[in-house]
Amino acid sequence: MKTPVCVLRLPRGPDGTSRGFDPSSARYQALCPSTISASGPVDCVDLRSEQRARSFLRERYLRSLIAMVKRDVKFTMYEKVKVDAVFAGSDIDILNFQVEDLETPLGVQKEALIRCPDVICYSFEIDSNL
Amino acid sequence: MNGWCRKKPLEWQEYVNKEVKVTAAEQEYEGWVFTVDPVSANIVLVNLKDGGKASVMAVMGHAVEAVEVLREGDSSTADQLTSLFMPAGAQGYSREELENRKSCLRDWLEKNRIPFTEQGAQQETLCVAGVLTVNPPYGPEDCSSSNEIILSRVQHLIQSNPGCQQDQ
């Protein structure tokens, strides 16, 4: 494993204070609506089945995130960037991924935050205990 | 937001257990849909490989350009996908087994003079001292509480339960 490089920080954003993670910035609001709206005025039964679908899907996704923790994950990002890292966690809105040992052309970042709007896809392997 | 992100959860649920081809950023990704996250619209695709491994690929919702259904899965594919991510040993408790485990825990809590109530649609959740809940299958890892001290005490207590009529 390569020696980690010292912490690199993103340059400050246009508003002079944030580093691109400010959830109240116009960029964030445009890219990541964090409130999930239910479908328009529908009756109670439809809402119930929509909620059931929502929790079914979300539970499965959270389990896939749990399966990913401490594993090597390959992130394919925009501008032909592909990086490897060890997944550590995600925030609730799936806007940022926390990773460790992020391998970049500049060296290995011990701890890093990856912005999900910058990611196209991520992949990892697990054992299929069948 | 693209068309994919604007779909509703019931529409996304239709894709689960189907083999699809997702086009994103001029690349195509194929696999069996395990789930679509309703918060981010990320599509989690699985490809089972030989040698007991599975490759999991998730395409971010905001990057999805098109999704084409290739094949429908059957119930065995559905089971395989589900069992991939469920913690080992989580499945396989029948209703009677769960009832027994609950009674066993109830008796142990009573013996230790710990107050609790039963909650939930089928009275399946035990609420201990009003601050901690225990869900089926009532093991130490099934406790949740915002109080670390109580959580740790109750977990130790459950672990030290001398045992019920069967298993354990």
From TrEMBL, chain A:
One of its GO terms (cellular component) is SMN-Sm protein complex. It comes from the Eukaryota. GO terms for biological process: spliceosomal snRNP assembly. Pfam families: Gemin7 (PF11095). Residues 1-25 form the SUZ-C domain. PANTHER family: GEM-ASSOCIATED PROTEIN 7 (PTHR14679). This is Gem-associated protein 7. It comes from Acipenser oxyrinchus oxyrinchus.
Automatic annotation (TrEMBL), chain B:
The keyword Thylakoid does not apply. InterPro entries: AD, Gemin6, Gemin6_C, Gemin6_Sm-like_dom. PROSITE patterns: AD (PS52001). Gene3D superfamilies: 2.30.30.100. It is found in: Cytoplasm; Nucleus, Gem; Nucleus, Nucleoplasm. GO terms for cellular component: Gemini of Cajal bodies; SMN complex. Its main location: cytoplasm. Coiled coil: none annotated. Residues 68-166 form the AD domain. Keywords: Cytoplasm, mRNA processing, mRNA splicing, Nucleus, Phosphoprotein. GO terms for biological process: spliceosomal complex assembly; spliceosomal snRNP assembly. Part of the core SMN complex that contains SMN1, GEMIN2/SIP1, DDX20/GEMIN3, GEMIN4, GEMIN5, GEMIN6, GEMIN7, GEMIN8 and STRAP/UNRIP. Part of the SMN-Sm complex that contains SMN1, GEMIN2/SIP1, DDX20/GEMIN3, GEMIN4, GEMIN5, GEMIN6, GEMIN7, GEMIN8, STRAP/UNRIP and the Sm proteins SNRPB, SNRPD1, SNRPD2, SNRPD3, SNRPE, SNRPF and SNRPG. Interacts with GEMIN7; the interaction is direct. Interacts with GEMIN8; the interaction is direct. Interacts with SNRPB, SNRPD2, SNRPD3 and SNRPE; the interaction is direct. PANTHER family: GEM-ASSOCIATED PROTEIN 6. The SMN complex catalyzes the assembly of small nuclear ribonucleoproteins (snRNPs), the building blocks of the spliceosome, and thereby plays an important role in the splicing of cellular pre-mRNAs. Most spliceosomal snRNPs contain a common set of Sm proteins SNRPB, SNRPD1, SNRPD2, SNRPD3, SNRPE, SNRPF and SNRPG that assemble in a heptameric protein ring on the Sm site of the small nuclear RNA to form the core snRNP (Sm core). This is Gem-associated protein 6. It comes from Acipenser oxyrinchus oxyrinchus. The gene is GEMIN6.
